[in-house]
Amino acid sequence: MIPRYSRPEMTAIWSPESKFRIWFEIEAHACDALAELGVIPKSAAKTIWEKGGKAVFDVARIDEIEAVTKHDVIAFLTHLAEIVGPDARFVHQGMTSSDVLDTCFNVQLVKATDILLADMDKLLAALKERAHEHKDTITIGRSHGIHAEPTTFGVKLALAYAEFERCRNRLVAARAEIATCAISGAVGTFANIDPRVEEHVARSMGLAAEPVSTQVIPRDRHAMYFATLAVIASSVERLAVEIRHLQRTEVLEAEEYFSPGQKGSSAMPHKRNPVLTENLTGLARMVRSYAMPAMENVALWHERDISHSSVERMIGPDATVTLDFALARLTGVVEKLVVYPENMMANLNKFRGLVHSQRVLLALTQAGVSREDAYRLVQRNAMKVWEDGKDFLEELLADDEVRQALAEDEIREKFDLGYHTKHVDTIFARVFGTED
User: Fold this and answer.
1) In 135-250, which residue ranges form alpha helices assigned H by DSSP?
2) What is the pLDDT averaged over residues 169-187?
3) Could you tell me the CA-to-CA distances from 35 to 75, 80, 85, 321, 334 in Å, in that order?
4) I want to staple 33 with a disulfide (CB 3.0 to 4.6 A). Which of 48, 200, 209, 416 is the partner?
5) DSSP of 53-111
6) Looking at residue 417, what DSSP letter applies?
7) Structure pTM?
8) Residue 1 clears pLDDT 80, i.e. is over it
9) Is the pLDDT assigned to residue 434 strictly greater than 90?
10) Active-site amino acid positions
11) How many Å separate Cα 293 from the centre of its chain?
């Protein structure tokens, strides 16, 4: 985790202190279930909670023990025994290390996901507000980076809203996918621990019991989870790239807020660079990169190996922390985005009416001209605009072949911008629902 791209609430989930607290809760809840089943004394389960529950686990001490044992869970259990005393012998009855590690990892991912869902709610709220603000702000739509036909800036933002709403739904599904618990013992057979212990721990930790584990929770769940984060990151980048393009000097239809005292370049004082959205593009690349090793973790040897372990120690914190930061940053960009409707209109009119070519093409075909001839007539006049800076409407009005099919008022009517925005309300109703 890089502090520059981290936020405290998310990083806290992945701290050693948080991890060891979750480990303790898993072990203590298991002891409660074992006590109810008569496997260990109820007094022991009570003592474990009383002494371990109020303890502050000494990370340095655990590291010191692990330096000797070369085993992190044993090091923790040894330190817990130092705190609890003789009753610690009842801790970890019939369990294996993966029961603790995998259940803890999923608890951490669930906690992280809840933060990410809250992040997405804030982003969606910002997109909705700005979309409605610019619902009727006409701008040019582009295909291949080239002027196509008019749209509105609100429709662009509504598109982003719908995309991130889908992302949120995927994240809810990924949370459910990852929210499982395994307390099944060596190779997952429950030979030395009753399945009811797993059920109790799962309920207590807000998880579902894994239907069948080996000695680990199946990693297809994690592959799906990190793939979902990667898709969300891709959507972050898509919107970031859109804003970066709109901020280019030659376009300047929207730009990141440039705060008082901010500097754009160490050499050129005039610069106002899209540094936040460029940063988001880079962060999205990192989050996507974590999906591949998560998929490669699915294929473990037999009932378990630990080739996945080192991967997850990195990608768990890094992917969630980075995406949390990215979503928060993108929300800020959207909230403060500076929009220039005048520049949008100036750009739209830059090629003097070319964006209305399709309407003229369709009108000619409806007037009885073949599509091939209609295309030829419209393109012939359009090329004069591209190459000689002519006015598209004037060229059409001066074209005898066009005028044989269309009257002047029919041609002029095809240059009405309102024609292109007549269904914006329908689009907004589909995206945001009918609002009073």
Assistant:
1) 153-178, 195-204, 220-247
2) 97
3) 24, 19, 18, 38, 54
4) 200
5) HT----HHHHHHHHHHH--HHHHHHHHHHHHH-GGGGGTTTT--HHHHHHHHHHHHHHH
6) G
7) 0.95
8) no
9) no
10) 144, 265
11) 18
